[in-house]
Amino acid sequence: MNDPLTPPSPSDPLPAVAAYWDAAAPAFDREPDHGLLDAATRRAWQRRLADWLPGEGLDVLDVGCGTGSLALLLAEAGHRVTGVDLAPAMVDRARQKFAAAGLAGRFLVGDASNPPTGADRYDAVLSRHLVWTLPDPPAALRAWSDLLRPGGRLLLVEGRWGEADAPVEPYAPGTEALPWAGGVPASALTAALRPLVHDLHVHPLESDTALWGGPVHDERYAVLACR
């Protein structure tokens, strides 16, 4: 087992990143849009997910699933959910949520940018507030689009936190050169996605305060695209 106090080699930041998110897991759901503990926030996400992924019975892959809050909403709506997260503590909490709700879900510990799902293919791949943590976001976008069945949907909920030109401190050893640290504007994300998908739509979300538990003052959006 890796010692979380021992810095990883510069070529392998994943142990430090996993340790960071493991440490964040106990308090993660205190953020309104993470835990969805407030009924209004929960309903707001339910409505959005129903609009973006209508119907039921879809096979959905939630990459960077965290504690599984959105995965749980999707399972409650009748979808079959697989979640992947690098942090074992996050995955443990997601499994606990599903067990408490009496719902089936599959959760894997692994690199969300290259999910360990083998030959499985999905009707939808969901990511929320993940791409800013990745060392090679374009490679992850390619991997995710390759996991879609024909006509499948890629749903990315993202944003750019704070001032666009403000310096961003690395959050874990080995993350000093993340290309999208601090978040990514919709213009940059859509430019990276367009060669991979078609029928791409951007949905601004910063004005939907119920999603975030209150007003936000930065860019928030969802990108919905089809393979």
TrEMBL record:
CDD domains on file: AdoMet_MTases (cd02440)
GO molecular function terms noted in the UniProt entry: methyltransferase activity
Domain of life: Bacteria
Sections of the chain in a coiled coil: none
Statement: the UniProt record of this protein carries the keyword Methyltransferase: yes
One BP term from GO: methylation
Domain Methyltransferase positions: 60-152
Alphabetical keyword list: Methyltransferase, S-adenosyl-L-methionine, Transferase
Protein name: SAM-dependent methyltransferase
Organism: Kitasatospora phosalacinea
